[in-house]
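Got a spare moment? Tell me how you read both lines of this record:
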Amino acid sequence: MALSHAAAIVEDRPASCRIDVLVAAPLRDDPYKGFNFRVEIDGVALAAFSEVSGLESETAVIEYRVGVEPDTVRKLPGLTKYANIVLRRGITRDTELWRWRKSVTEGRADRRSGAIVLLDDEGNEVVRWTFVQGWICKWEGPALNATGNEVAIETIAIAHEGLDLA
């Protein structure tokens, strides 16, 4: 009799308080891994990069004080600046990026748009940062060392006029 009485008490409770009801675990929203990415640049056929940095924007803060508010400083948004996008890759026979840089040093700013695309584990696009009016403002060759065994890495920096999340 005591067993059936306990069962009756459990059934009278709301579902959220019952101990015999299984609640599904919430779905996990794991962050994406930083090593699955692709770089797309207009007019560059092959560009496999090992590292990307500089996906940054910053808006200047303009401080403004109203004379009737002696202890308060208002903060207004000013100009927005975008950091240069820095790309690193192993040097190969492909000279396409060097030719793009060379056009800038010769006075012809060859402006291109592009994107940095983050991929999930299956290789599907999940986030796309696009930049506009970009040109190579810096090229850096590899550090060469006859006693080392590292890959020869070239680094380029792309100045651009806007970064957007698509």
Observations:
- The chain has a mean pLDDT of 87.
